[in-house]
């Protein structure tokens, strides 16, 4: 028997999953194969766990939706090409190319933004197979017309179960999100991040709260304060492990909160920012200030938020004293160019799902250079320019944020990113723009969390809340 040749892309079928045609990218650099899956819902006993998921096999036709189920054989940490690690369900199923059929393992991951709904890794390639990277479709070509005999359907609308992860359920932003969710028929619960605790290391991960395991949520809206960022990200990862869609992922929140990392990622993407300098050694103090353009400079704690930990040093001597004082406290900080022409004002662009949905101008109070509303700044309506919209979208995308407040400074060279906020407040932007930003956030969740079927809550023998799914 001769060698079985594969091209760098191939058509294949997954007959046991009811998928007669999938276009896959063959990637020998990836060990594990991956299949697009959304709304992943585990079910069945812990001794024989199974998983149900939704797939749109044709990227060009999202109305074609197939519900699949399979036995879970493992949960495995997989690191993506951008460095993010995700705990994924692993299933085993047969793959068919031409007349050849053999079993492979697949991890389930949302590949909605990817060109190929499936990644075919080297572990699925058998010993007598050879991959020719210069050829497409060495095996028989299929097409999505094979799904013609399968009924198309509109995704079933049902109330979502949403967790609002916050320690401040009574502030404006939390109340507006809860009002918006309930107005659209969803069930939303405010969950205190600090009161969550976790069971880790099983095929059925859980989040515990006030002495009992929480029922599964369809989606989580994280409103994690800076003082609890690390623990909040751990809790958010655990919610993600249960299959909940997280409005902003833990990795994206971590990147935005670490100002040094955020600046490095934005700089790598060639997104304009004020000149920023960072050093560890006290011997570098004078040069550090010079790198930031010289006095006046802004000294900013890496963990600063709402204008706290942000100080303006108007002279070189004051800057040197301030830098030395911060080092004496063993604080991590940046030294940043002071943009005088901004005149104490910046523009907040509100991004939802890679779309800028609103903007406002923030003006610092008299005698204050920080424009944060928590520092007495005022907000007013503003018409965003195409350049501002593009920079805001790019900045949120680089950090991986689905919802973000991107603060821009106006300079002679155009808009520059001052900061990207992963938990932007709603009061200022809604008041200034007159838009229902909270409602837009809930609408975005509805588009992302596609329900598999009508669901009703049932109570099992253990007293925990479970789900009985009736697939249409």
UniProtKB/TrEMBL annotation:
Residues bound to Mg(2+) 2: 419, 421
Keyword annotations from UniProtKB, A to Z: ATP-binding, Ligase, Magnesium, Manganese, Metal-binding, Nucleotide-binding, Protein biosynthesis
GO biological-process terms attached to the record: SOS response; translation
Residues reported in the UniProt entry to bind Mg(2+) 1: 407, 419
Protein family (similarity comment): Belongs to the RimK family.
Cited HAMAP family: RimK (MF_01552)
Matching NCBIfam families: PRK10446.1, rimK_fam
PANTHER family the UniProt entry points to: RIBOSOMAL PROTEIN BS6--L-GLUTAMATE LIGASE, RIBOSOMAL PROTEIN S6 MODIFICATION PROTEIN
This protein's name: Probable alpha-L-glutamate ligase
Organism: Hyphomonas chukchiensis
Lineage: Bacteria, Pseudomonadati, Pseudomonadota, Alphaproteobacteria, Hyphomonadales
Name of the gene: rimK
